[in-house]
Specification:
Chain B: Belongs to the WD repeat THOC6 family. Chain B: One of its GO terms (cellular component) is transcription export complex. Chain B: This is THO complex subunit 6 homolog. Chain B: Pfam families: WD40. The complex is a heterodimer of chains A (217) and B (323). Helices cover 92% and strands 0% of the residues of chain A. Chain A is mostly helical and 217 residues long. Chain A has a domain of 143 residues. The longest helix of chain A has 86 residues. Chain A is rod-shaped. The N and C termini of chain A lie far apart (202 Å). The mean pLDDT of chain A is 87. Chain B has 323 residues and is mainly beta. Chain B has a single domain, classed as 7 Propeller (Methylamine Dehydrogenase, Chain H). Chain B is 5% helix and 49% strand. Chain B contains 3 helices and 28 strands. Chain B has a 4-stranded antiparallel β-sheet with strand order 1-2-3-4. Chain B has a 4-stranded antiparallel β-sheet with strand order 5-6-7-8. The termini of chain B are close together. The chains are: A mainly alpha (217), B mainly beta (323). Chains A and B meet through helix 4 of A and strand 20 of B.
């Protein structure tokens, strides 16, 4: 990326033409030769370490350079630790989100199931309501008719009356028969008597006729 | 179709396709329009998707009755029944599969056909119309095999009881007659206007809507809409709806009915009117529920307007299809 930047700046300076290439290259490399941020720190550390190993510093300078390198190293370690923590955090967040996602999926399916259940419930309730309504309608009609017990009682009373009356009728008929028979007996006796009387009269008149005929002869 | 004609249009009948994705509607000019429900209900529906995908003239007179079988759409107008294949209609071809006429006694006037139902048990078509008789046609052979005579005035509506295989018919003479479909003999005759609680002499005695749900029957028209228990042949609830009801259906625990007045009435079996949902036409002639398809489960109503209201949630009007 630094090379690209360098190239762009190089183009710009070519236009200008006043500053030489070497100057530009030197300037760029000085500012941005090591890369950006952490990368740069590591590169700088490496370079200063090699420089420190190879060159002859006075002890104080060498020591200060050594201190500087240690701080730089510490900074690098710190930044690395930070990145590792961030990475861990991202992983954990991902897991968390996955868990929430799965949870929501489950609750969606359970909500669907509950909806289906409720729909079935509604159908059942509607059927029940319809049955109740039909029952009520029929009950209303039935209520309009008189009570069964009462009608039965009335029927029983009528039955008893009927029985009584037929009993009476039987009695009366029996009496009638009896009287008829008695009258019949009476009438036949009278007729027989009449017959006997007539016979007697006839016999008497025959007798007198015979006696008068005998006398006349 | 000019604006004056649109103004005077009335929708008399509706029917959903067997797949449940199309709606056919018939109007008083003899036209049948096929609407695509999947287009109208899709999220990106536009003004154009509320227009019919196919609009053709099916009969000379008004199309009073539409009925869908598994493959065909049957339409009835002035005395003739035409069948159109749904597959062909979806492909926009308007050639009728067949056209038949029941045998009428007089050939002078051709009576209109007001109601058609299918008897699924023996695959026969039952039609009732202006000649006071019910004709039964076998769907496979096309022969009109029997005639049920009994009504003294024209028949408005027909209904079929699956369990006992009985046909119910309601007519202008105020009688609801129950016929046994196997022996073709009349079983019962209920004269609704003779019952004090239902009768409304100011409107007349005609019965224009019939619906049945196993042991229960709804009937209405001139007399108030009433719920009858068929086993005991007695009216159990009378609904206090002001106008004359032209169509009523049982749906889950509700009774929905349409008639005079720009609303759909939701009622409970007990006799209370739960809700009245307003609609665009000023009076409604037909109500249809699309129960075959769970995705497009809608209710559509049509009446004295060129618009057909569509209800996705039965409690409010979602949008209107327009002829």
């Amino acid at each position: 990326m630094s090379i690209k930047f360098f190239r762009i700046v190089q183009c710009a300076f070519w236009r200008m033409g006043s500053i030489t290439d070497d100057e530009v290259i030197r300037k760029r490399l000085l500012i941005d030769g090591d890369g950006a941020g952490d990368d740069r720190r590591i590169n700088v550390l490496m370079k200063s370490f090699t420089k420190w190993c190879h060159s002859n510093f006075s002890p104080e300078e060498g020591f200060s350079q050594y201190q500087r390198m240690l701080t730089s190293l510490a900074q690098c370690e710190f930044s690395m630790g930070k990145t590792l923590l961030v990475y861990d955090m991202n992983l954990k967040e991902m897991e968390n989100y996955e868990a929430i996602y799965a949870d929501i999926e489950r609750s969606i399916t359970s909500a669907h199931e509950k909806i289906a259940e409720c729909k079935k419930e509604i159908q059942r309730a509607k059927r029940i309501r319809k049955n109740r309504q039909e029952y009520d309608a029929l009950a209303r009609v039935i209520k309009q008719h008189p009570d069964r017990h009462e009608t039965l009682k009335q029927l029983e009373a009528l039955d008893r009356e009927l029985q009584q009356l037929s009993h009476i009728k039987e009695n009366v008929e029996d009496k009638l028969e009896l009287r008829k028979k008695q009258f019949h007996v009476l009438l036949t006796t009278i007729q027989e008597l009449q017959q006997t009387l007539e016979n007697d009269e006839k016999m008497e008149s025959d007798d007198t006729q015979e006696s008068s005929m005998e006398n006349g002869d | 179709m000019g604006p004056v004609e649109l103004l005077h249009m009335s929708v008399f009948s509706q029917s959903f396709s067997p797949c449940g994705r199309f709606l056919a509607a018939g109007n008083n000019y003899g036209e049948i329009a096929v609407f695509s429900l999947s287009a109208a209900l899709s999220p990106d529906a536009s003004q154009a998707s509320q227009k019919p995908i196919l609009n053709f003239t099916a009969h000379d007179g008004p199309v009073f009755s539409l009925l869908s079988t598994d493959t065909h759409l049957l339409s009835a107008g002035n005395g003739e029944i035409s069948a159109w294949s749904w597959a062909e209609l979806i492909k926009k071809s308007t050639k009728a599969a067949w056209t038949r006429k029941p045998s009428y006694e007089t050939s002078l006037e051709i009576p209109e056909i007001n109601a058609m139902i299918i008897n699924p048990k023996d695959n026969s078509l039952i039609v009732g119309g202006g000649d006071n008789n019910i004709h039964i046609m076998d769907m496979e052979t096309g022969i009109f095999k029997s005639v049920l005579k009994g009504h003294t005035d024209y028949i408005h509506c027909l209904c079929f009881k699956e369990r006992e295989e009985e046909i119910l018919s309601g007519g202008e003479d105020g009688a609801v007659r129950i016929w046994d479909s196997r022996t073709n003999r009349p079983v019962h005759c209920i004269e609704v206007f003779k019952y004090e609680e239902c009768a409304r002499p100011q409107f007349g005695k005609w019965i224009s809507c019939l619906a049945t749900d196993s042991d229960w029957m709804l009937c209405g028209g001139g007399p108030s809409l009433s719920l009858w228990h068929l086993r005991s042949m007695s009216p159990t609830s009378v609904f206090p709806l002001p106008g004359c009801q032209r169509e009523a259906v049982f749906y889950q625990d509700l009774i929905m009915s349409v008639g005079e007045g720009p609303h759909v009435s939701h009622c409970l079996h007990g006799g209370t009117v739960k809700a009245q949902i307003p609609c665009t036409p000023s009076s409604l002639n037909t109500l249809a529920l699309n129960l075959k398809n769970t995705e497009h489960r809608v209710m559509t109503v049509g009446g004295s307007s060129h618009q057909i209201d569509v209800f996705t949630n039965f409690s409010y009007r979602a949008f209107s299809l327009s002829f």
